[in-house]
Amino acid sequence: MKVVFLVFSPSGHTLLTAQNFMNMLENKGVSCDMINITKNDNYIQKEDITHTLYSDIGEHCMLVVCAPIYAGHCEQNMLRIIHMLPKRKNGRIPAILLVTYGGVHSSVALEEMGKGIRSRGYIPIMGIKIAAEHTLTATFKKRINRQLPGEKEQQVLAEAAEIAVNVLNGKTDAVDAKKALEYAPFPKRLMFRILSQEKIHGKYKKVAINSQICNGCGQCIRACPVNMFACVDNKVQLIRNPGHCILCAECYHHCSAGAIIHPYIEVARKRLSDGFAELENPQSAVYH
Ligand SMILES: Cc1cc2nc3c(=O)[nH]c(=O)nc-3n(C[C@H](O)[C@H](O)[C@H](O)COP(=O)(O)O)c2cc1C
Ligand code: SF4
Ligand code: SF4
To answer: Which residues have any ligand 2 atom within 6 Å of their CB?
Structure first.
């Protein structure tokens, strides 16, 4: 039996963190497998993915769901995948929820992931939040958490690996971490319950290419985690409905010609540099 990692990582920090955590488990003799849905059209583009999940995940003794936090919530693609997991009927399997975030507010992400995974018949035994570079600030003068994850995050992952192995070995019972996942102050939890990711981001999903400047280099095609771009008739174009854009800004950061129009970047620049970006304390932690 194996531990399966499900990962979505537009800018790579969640993937690195998940790989780190997986190595820690493997060093303790646990067999692991990883499904990375980033740029994977079988997951990103298809409406019904329950069957794909069923065959890809297979038999497992623990599930680790890894995603970044966007607008205080679990990123929407991973939340959708959680809700499409094949429902467990025979015996509940322990699950771990792992988020990386820019340190600003994790609020309801672990809580809503816990709720989702519980509804599919798993036991959410712990939530892990890991501070990482705030990727929206990657090309800003003032970058948030540029050096993270660091040593502290390694310690948090090591603590989590210890707990996971104890549950797998039957030394500790698999207990639902429901209460522990409600760690954010109540006003913030309330605010982000009202303000969904779509409410915060929806109106900015208007990424476009300035064709006067675009040199056709294709960097945006390679960088986009949800495959919004393609080269059609020798021209790089947006090929998906703008609503599928997650505003990750990877296209913007990678376009050296400055041809990407990204309406949310300037909003983020203002929000993250005028005192709005108060960092959480602790920045990285295990909740169980
Ligand atoms: C559109 C967008 C929204 C984000 N919203 C938040 C947020 O609300 N709070 C936060 O602390 N970090 C936020 N971040 C930062 C990411 O959660 C963080 O950089 C994460 O580690 C990215 O993971 P990845 O490298 O796997 O994509 C946001 C990043 C993007 C691109
Ligand atoms: S990265 Fe910029 S210049 Fe290159 S193809 Fe995309 S939009 Fe055009
Ligand atoms: S179009 Fe740009 S901002 Fe939107 S998902 Fe793709 S890379 Fe991210």
So the answer is: 209, 214-220, 236, 254-255, 257, 259-260
Instruction: Kindly give the number of the ligand 2 atom that is closest to the alpha carbon of 213.
Output: 3
Instruction: Pick the closest to residue 226 from 211, 209, 207, 210 (CA basis).
Output: 207
Q: What value of ipTM does the predicted structure carry?
A: 0.99
| 143 lies in the same domain as 208 | no
Give the pLDDT of the chain (288 residues) as one tens digit per residue: 899 999 999 999 999 999 999 999 999 999 999 999 999 999 999 989 999 999 999 999 999 999 999 999 999 999 999 999 999 887 789 999 999 999 998 989 999 999 999 999 999 999 999 999 999 999 888 889 999 999 999 999 999 999 999 999 999 999 999 999 999 999 989 999 899 999 999 999 999 999 999 999 999 999 999 999 999 999 999 999 999 999 999 999 999 999 999 999 989 988 887 555 789 999 999 999
The residue whose CB lies within 8 Å of the most ligand 1 atoms, and thus the one to mutate among 14, 21, 101, is: 101
Do both 19 and 156 map to the same domain? yes
**Beta carbons of 169 and 46 less than 8 angstroms apart:** no
Q: For the chain, give the number of residues.
A: 288
- Report yes or no: 161 and 28 within 8 Å, Cβ to Cβ: yes
Same domain, 163 and 84: yes
Q: Domain count for the chain, please give it.
A: 2
Residues 238 and 159 in one domain: no
Same domain? For 135 and 259 the reply is no
